[in-house]
Amino acid sequence: PQLQEIRIEKANSLEHIDQNAFWNLPMLKYLFIYNTGIHIIPAVSRIQSLEIVFLDIQDNINIKKIKRNAFSGLSNESVRLWLV
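The line above is the sequence of Follicle-stimulating hormone receptor; the predicted structure tokens follow.
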């Protein structure tokens, strides 16, 4: 798979993202999750990419839980999380 960027935006009816949704995407560089209805931040540590992945999660006001180790394997420079 050559997919380098995923944008999930303005999807208020989206309440769940499967924990394996981003598995086997070796070229993934950017993952944006904006303004959705998700309740739990998926374990993005399952991203299997050969690249450094930039993760940006914003304006998801329904988030109630962040799974333990959800961001393990990602560097501080590659995560931007705004829970407002």
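Note on the example: The first strand starts at residue 5 and ends at 11. Residues 5-81 form one domain.
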